[in-house]
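User: Some background: our group keeps a shared notebook of sequences we're curious about, and every so often someone picks one and asks for a predicted structure to add to the entry. Today it's my turn. The entry only has the sequence so far, pasted here. Could you supply the structure so I can complete it?
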Amino acid sequence: MSEAPDRLHRLQALVEVEAPADAASDLAGRLDRICRASVQILAVAGVGVSVMDRAARPLGTIAASSPFVRRLEEVQFTLGEGPSVEASSARSPVLEDDLTGSGARRWPAYAASAEEQGVAAVFAFPIQIGAARLGALVLYRKERGPLAHEVVLDALGLARICLNTMLSVPAAALSRDADGLGDADGLGDGDRLGDGDGLGLNSEVYQAQGVLTVQLGVPLTEAMLRLRARAYATERPLDEVARDVLAGRIDLTRDDL
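Assistant: Of course. Here's the predicted structure to add to the notebook entry:
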């Protein structure tokens, strides 16, 4: 009966051993620390944490064990598909141990991009409480094959530690309108998550989406598709394209995308 609490205590102790970065006091820094510790605990190539909205759409990457993993996570944000999206939508772990086979059929664009970076398998674990889907913890491996049962249990425990970390953030740290997570189903006003610096890029993307809605006279959904299409076609992160739209450096009214 005590196995789950004991596991969490052991994992939390291993996370605490990981040296904190300079910014480890904010939400993103604390989650970065969990990601770096998870690489050692789970013996994987990289770990990232993506944040989702209430419809299980990716808002962006809040933490990663390395810049390499952060780029891989952003691919999901740009394409709108991948393990984080599926795990959050299904509210259950997604264990894809072969990106060249079943993974390529599951997420054609994402799998091709991840394979180019040397990733052979990905495993996503939802970060959720009740009906509220906050994000996903994603593991990257360079070898095909399933995770051992104990590794899966540890990954679930680390996802729970991510959840506890998110829920510990003061409510005033994040505006309800910035990312749509503040009033997520199952969370009250006192449970709002956030860190302005860690999630600031998300608001830029949604500001650009609003600008395009007005400029192009299209629904919000199509405006986001235009942003993602431009990011994909130019092989740039979505947040960079959004900043260019806001600064007037990109005029998508003249694009065929």
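Suggested note for the entry: Residues 116 and 165 are 33 Å apart (CA to CA). The longest strand covers residues 132-141.
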